[in-house]
Every structure is written in C-alpha cells, then in structure tokens.
Design a protein that fits this description.
This protein has about 170 residues and is α+β, with helices and mostly antiparallel strands. Helices cover about 20% and strands about 40% of the residues. The strands form two sheets. Strands 1, 3, 6, 7 and 9 form a five-stranded antiparallel sheet that branches. A hairpin with a 4-residue loop joins strand 4 and strand 5.
C-alpha cells in the first residue's frame, strides 16, 4: 500500500517541499517544449534540351503512397502561342490527368494528385502553335509520401537538447 506523501501527524519539512517544487518545475519546463519533425518532399525533376522539344519530358513510377503537391515548369524561351503541359498519372486500374497552359517562361502548378504504389507519372509538353520550337524545358515536381511510409525517428527531449548544445559548441569553435 502506498504511503501518504505527508502524514497528518508529521512536521512539515521545508527542504523536502523545496526539493519537490524543484522537480515539478523541471518537469513543467520539459513538458512545455514542442518538438516537430519535418517530412521532406522528394523532388522529381528533369531537364530536356533539343532543337524541337515536345512530347513526354518526364516519367516516374512511385513506390509508395503520397501526393504530388506542386511543380514548376521553366522554358528556355517564352513560346509565342503558349505551350500545353499535361500531367498524367496512371496505373492498371485508372488514369488521372491535369492540363495547364504556359504562356510565360515559367509556371508554378499545384496538381494535388494522390498516388499509390505502382502509379506512373508522365509529363508531356506541346507548343500550341506548331511553328514554336521549344529548345529547353525544365520540370520539377514535389512528391510528399504519406506518413506511414516515411522513416520516423523518435528522440527524447534530452537527446535533442544535447544535439542542439553540441551543434552550438561546434559553431562557436569555428
């Protein structure tokens, strides 16, 4: 059976109370710390050069679930009539695509396409005006895997504090 912290007939020991207050203060300080983990997106990118770049410019297959969050398409020169960019995601069961028209040298897109293992991404570009010749096309998309497929590291607050202190010491030494 558990004994009471301060029996009713005992004398109050101020040293003991101070010690308990110090322990509670330390625990309270630690409990207020917020620790965040960052799951970085994976870049999927390609650069294509030629005298007349058109058609498929990037292909990628996904090994696990996630979302294609955003992308950037950059052209070497601005096409007079614009260019059509098609982002297609397909597998054996279905296909999903998003189309964009680029009228400047670069375009930021957010297709928000959900992917599952085995999905294939195909990004293609075609000038709207056939007389336009694209010579340089850069494309980069960010794929964010789902948390269940991410490698999650667990740290105690003390370990993070030690890591932070050692990093600060290294910076001071430099």
């Amino acid at each position: 059976m558990r004994q009471p912290l301060f029996p009713k007939s005992s004398v109050v020991n101020l040293d003991r109370i101070n010690r308990i207050e110090r322990i509670v203060t330390r625990f309270a300080r630690r409990s207020n710390k917020l620790t965040s983990a960052l799951i970085t997106p994976y870049p999927i990118s390609s650069a294509t050069f030629g005298e007349d770049v058109k058609g498929s410019i990037l292909r990628y297959m996904f090994p696990c679930e996630g979302i294609i969050a955003k992308g950037l398409i950059k052209l070497g020169s601005r096409p007079k009539g614009g260019a059509e960019v098609n982002v297609e995601l397909s597998n054996n069961a279905y296909s999903d695509s998003r189309g964009f028209i680029i009228t400047s040298r670069q375009l930021m897109v957010e297709p928000d396409l959900k992917v599952v293992p085995g999905d294939c991404l195909d990004i293609s570009i075609n000038p709207v005006d056939e007389s336009d010749k694209l010579k340089e096309v850069w494309v980069s998309f960010l794929w964010v895997p789902t948390i269940k497929d991410a490698d999650i590291k667990h740290f105690l607050i003390e370990e993070l504090d030690k890591l932070e202190e050692s990093t600060i010491e290294e910076l001071v030494e430099e």
